[in-house]
Design goal:
The complex is a heterodimer of chains A (198) and B (423).
Chain A (H helix, E strand, L loop, with lengths): L5 H8 L3 H22 L6 H18 L10 H19 L18 H21 L3 H13 L3 H8 L3 H25 L13
Chain B lengths: L10 H4 L9 H12 L18 H5 L29 E5 L4 E4 L4 E5 L4 E6 L5 E14 L5 E5 L2 E5 L3 E7 L2 E8 L2 E4 L4 E4 L3 E5 L6 E4 L7 E3 L35 H9 L3 E4 L10 H10 L3 H30 L2 H6 L2 H9 L6 H13 L14 H10 L1 H13 L1 H9 L8 E5 L3
Parallel strand pairs in B: 5-6
Antiparallel strand pairs in B: 1-4, 2-3, 3-5, 4-5, 5-8, 6-7, 7-10, 8-9, 9-12, 10-11, 12-13, 14-16, 15-16
The chains are: A mainly alpha (198), B alpha+beta (423).
């Protein structure tokens, strides 16, 4: 995705409310994507929303100190804040959240079958994620969905590149098994659909 | 294997992203009111204080600042000069009235303000502001509290305005720090903040710049080490400004027409003294490569224009407030702040529109100078300062040389005045 234009960014850094609202609008989807994915099975949709708000409050406070250098830098700065907050949230002791699929509660039929399959898949994903540490989850999400390279991940999460590679390997091993199982056993109609453009 | 090769296929379908709710942005913005202003970035070296520069920082929201500067530095300010100091007093202001609060500072009461104050032997000051608006400049000393019907304003800093209206107290902080205190909460305001006491909510604050539809920008310093422009994509919309625009003197008719459409006024600002500090003048002379007699002439013109500017600001202040005593007591930055506060509703934007169209040749300046408000007079002073400096320099080095020096970088070295936004 394109970064916010320099003029709007400059205004937002000065405290211009309209400009900051434009920044929120621009980055709300990737922030939700990072927070929601890292916290899958742990936080409810409402909690993800709340944490995403907190991300932008932190962005707002820190924005005057942000130094824009190069394309994509603001995006990755915002997502770094999001991932760190999500990691902190994941470390917090809490009850597990099991996503409820309303369709699955309806009468039997093709739609209910698909919903059930989706729910089973999500449950499998949650189980796979449970084997990962918060840092491994965040590393994987930023790498797979938001194009952070190894160096950017190392800077964002304040570890060395070797640690990043190790985390990614661990996460991929866990999730590759899930995907293989899913592709072999799940009927096509059970695949979740929707717009995943972030 | 490259970083890309080991991606997992089909992951997005399995692990979809949560979508934000449609009102997400609005809810974040609502929370900013409670979150306070953004943290301040490490301050760069403070720019030279020059009497034209302050306008950049002050006019956007008419919430004036103390960063203004001119001619009289604080340490030599008349506000600190010895004056008979009432230990206590009260005032119902029928016009702008300046009162010294012992050695603790100066208050400029706006028409309609009702104040009573006491300053004890230890320098502790208490002001009861019952109604109206008043500007305070507070000097260091003991505690300083402004009591209002909606709560107290405890002063930790130096420069702010308190307005009491309909049971709500509004505080704009220009410099230093103040704390708002009511029955349920305390909140600290930093420079640029606006806070409220009373009404439906407890003490609260919001960053004042957010309310400003207009904007002020300072373009980069032009010089050997700094590019004259920064390549930035030109934004669409009616109020864009572009760092890549040519400076004021390089604008052709088409660009002046465009700026008139944006109600945008740009001007180069000449180097002036801050108090007796000539650092800004030295920097400009360095950038122009001036040595010997020309450098002396350049400094002479700056000293002369600084003195003229100080005198003009004083005249405008008195015209704006009728407060001759205040002109003796207040330093120049405070005088400018008070001039800016005289702007009527929408006057700032209307003035920008008029000035930008004059610049583009669409209209003539007003024939009747008596119809010009002090607010307008001040801005005409600011935007003509570059021309004034060229004239003064020309008397020393000749017209051609002064003309050439000013145009070497498209205007005098230093920051530009850039002011935009239509009514």
């Amino acid at each position: 995705m394109h970064d916010l234009d320099e003029i709007t960014l400059t205004r937002a850094r000065r405290g211009d409310a309209q400009a900051f609202a434009a920044l929120v609008t621009r980055y709300q989807r990737p922030v939700h994507a990072v927070v929601g994915r890292v916290l899958l099975g742990v936080a409810s949709a409402a909690e993800v929303d709340e944490l995403a708000q907190e991300v932008f409050l932190r962005v707002y406070r820190a924005l005057p100190g942000f130094e824009s250098r190069g394309p994509g830098r603001l995006t990755k700065w915002v997502l770094t804040i999001a991932s760190r907050l999500a990691i902190d949230e994941l470390r917090r002791p809490r009850a597990r959240v099991v996503p409820i699929d309303a369709e699955a509660l309806e009468a039997p039929g093709p739609a209910a079958d698909a919903a059930t399959a989706r729910r089973q898949l999500t449950a499998s994903l949650v189980r796979a994620l449970e084997t990962l540490t918060p840092e491994q989850r965040a590393t994987f999400v930023l790498r797979e969905f938001h194009d952070f390279d190894h160096d950017e991940l190392a800077r964002a999460l304040e570890v060395d590149v070797g640690t990043i590679k190790s985390r990614l390997s661990r996460a991929r091993t866990a999730l590759r098994a899930l995907l293989a199982e899913h592709h072999q056993g799940a009927p096509t109609r059970a695949l979740p659909t929707g717009d995943h453009d972030v | 294997m490259s970083e890309r090769d080991d991606r997992l296929d089909g992951l997005e379908a399995v692990w979809p992203a949560q979508e934000p709710r449609p009102d997400f942005s609005a809810r974040v913005m609502a929370r900013l009111d409670d979150a306070g202003p953004p943290a301040r970035a490490p301050r760069p070296p403070r720019p030279p204080r020059r009497w034209v520069v302050p306008a950049l920082a002050t006019i956007s929201v008419a919430a004036v600042t103390c960063v203004v500067a001119l001619m009289v530095t604080r340490s030599s300010g008349a506000a600190r000069a010895a004056r008979p100091v009432p230990a206590q007093g009260s005032l119902t202001a029928e016009a702008h009235t300046t009162v010294a609060l012992g050695a603790r500072g100066v208050v400029v009461a706006h028409p309609g303000a009702v104040l009573a104050w006491t300053v004890d032997r230890g320098g502790r000051a208490e002001v009861h502001q019952i109604a109206g608006a008043a500007f305070y400049r507070v000097e260091a000393g003991g505690s300083f509290v402004v009591h209002t019907p909606a709560g107290d304003v405890s002063v930790l800093g130096t420069c702010f305005t308190v307005a009491v209206s309909d049971g709500v107290t509004t505080v704009d902080v220009d410099e230093g720090t103040v704390e708002l205190i009511d029955a349920t909460s305390r909140i600290e305001l930093a420079p640029g903040d606006r806070g409220h006491l009373g009404g439906a909510a407890p003490a609260r604050r919001r960053p004042a710049p957010g309310a400003a539809p207009a904007a002020i920008a300072r373009t980069p310093v032009v010089g050997a080490s700094t590019p004259a422009s920064v390549p930035v994509p030109r934004a669409g919309g009616g109020d864009c400004f572009c760092f890549s625009d040519p400076r004021h003197l390089e604008a052709d008719q088409a660009l002046l027409d465009e700026w008139a459409g944006l109600c945008r006024v740009r001007a180069d600002l000449p180097p002036l003294l801050e108090g007796t500090d000539q650092a800004a003048v030295d920097a400009a002379a360095d950038q122009l490569g001036l040595v010997g007699g020309e450098r002396v002439a350049f400094h002479g013109a700056a000293v002369e224009l600084t003195a003229i500017g100080r005198a003009r600001v004083r005249e405008i202040y008195i015209a704006a407030t009728g407060d001759s005593a205040g002109a003796d007591q207040l330093d120049v930055d405070s005088q400018i702040e008070q001039i800016l506060q005289t702007a009527g509703l929408g006057e700032e934007a209307r003035l920008r529109a008029r000035l930008s169209h004059e610049r583009a040749g669409h209209s003539a300046p007003p024939a009747d100078s008596g119809a010009i408000t002090p607010f307008e007079e001040f801005f005409r002073l600011v935007i003509s300062a570059g021309d004034d400096f060229e004239r003064l320099l020309a008397t020393r080095v000749g017209d051609a040389r002064a003309h050439e020096l000013r145009r070497r970088f498209g205007g005098w070295p230093g920051p530009d005045f850039d002011w935009f936004g239509c009514p």
